[in-house]
Design a protein that fits this description.
- This protein has about 200 residues and is α+β, with helices and mostly antiparallel strands.
- The protein has one domain: Glutaredoxin (3-Layer(aba) Sandwich).
- About 25% of the residues lie in helices and about 25% in strands.
- The chain contains 4 helices and 10 strands, in the order βαβββββαβαβββα.
- The strands form 3 sheets. It has a 6-stranded mixed β-sheet. Strands 1-2 form a two-stranded antiparallel ribbon.
- Strand 9 and strand 10 form a beta hairpin.
- It is globular.
- The relative contact order is 0.23.
- The N terminus is likely disordered.
Length: about 200
């Protein structure tokens, strides 16, 4: 079954590329992306307008991740799940990430009744600093986990933040959004519902 075509543009999104200095240099090295340009105190750029980034024809498989909670306990994001997941990757030094998170938090409340799950992963090696950051930015609807030592270096490593992945029940990455978005726009509800229907049909094959 063919996946959905990329949606129509919804306007440019803001995104950032980490600057290779200090902790950000360490992070990019772990991802195998040390040559990328800056973000937090560096260069800010507009992301392409397309809402869903196209995937390779063979599809992308979510590998599952070994993470930490905000209290530094071990946690796992499994390959599969009993619901469609929207998984957002962000970092404290990323300005577009901070601006996006409140609307993503509101989206989490809105889709809960639809049986969809919104989760976030902060790329951060400092648990205390992350807790303090979120204390100033309360996000009651978001389940936030911490990725202290990113090791994912394949073709879909996180070269740009924020990124949001729609992951099907069997672990298939159905679509991606690269760059910050306004998740309060009702268009996202219809697009997520469409992906959920697609994923349910794929599960029957």
């Amino acid at each position: 079954m063919r996946g959905p075509a990329p949606d129509a543009p919804t306007g440019p999104a803001e995104r950032c590329r980490p600057e290779p200095a200090g902790r950000r240099r360490w992070l990019l090295g772990a991802l195998g992306l040390a040559g990328l340009a800056g973000c937090g105190g560096g260069r800010r750029e507009a992301a392409p307008a397309a809402a869903w980034a196209p995937l390779d024809p063979g599809g992308v498989r979510f590998p599952g991740l070994q993470l930490r909670t905000l209290d530094d306990a071990p946690a796992t994001l499994a390959v599969g799940h009993d619901r469609l997941r929207l998984l957002n990757f962000w970092a404290r030094w990323c300005g577009p990430c901070r601006r996006e998170l409140p609307s993503l938090d509101r989206l989490a409340h809105r889709v809960l009744a639809e049986g969809l799950v919104v989760q976030t992963v902060a790329l951060d090696d400092d648990a205390f600093a992350l807790r303090e950051y979120l204390r100033d930015l309360p996000l009651p609807g978001l389940a936030t986990l911490r990725w202290p030592s990113p090791q994912w270096t394949g073709r879909d490593a996180l070269a740009t933040l924020p990124q949001t992945w729609a992951i099907g029940r069997r672990g298939d990455v159905l679509a991606r959004v690269v760059g910050g978005r306004d998740w309060d726009d009702d268009v996202w509800l219809s697009r997520l519902a469409g992906l959920d229907r697609l994923d349910r049909l794929r599960g029957l094959t």
